[in-house]
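Quick note —
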Amino acid sequence: MIWCSSVIKIMGMTIQIGDNIRIELIQEQHTSSIYQLVDNNIDYLRTWLCFVDKMKTIEFAENFICISMQRNKKENRFDFVNFLTI
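Predicted structure written out below.
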């Protein structure tokens, strides 16, 4: 795995939206879930997310998350993941 070790120290932020919805700052632990979600739903997601056609490998997902974490650390853009518990 490729990780930006200097970025990993960023604090984890979770915002609870409701009883079954929360968002979290994107972190390395989300890699597999994001990759699988995109891989399983690429035709649907393509309409809204321009990067999905490039996410052909888990390494692309790792790099995507690393870059997102760097932006989060600089506090110039924040990337979150959404969770819905059913």
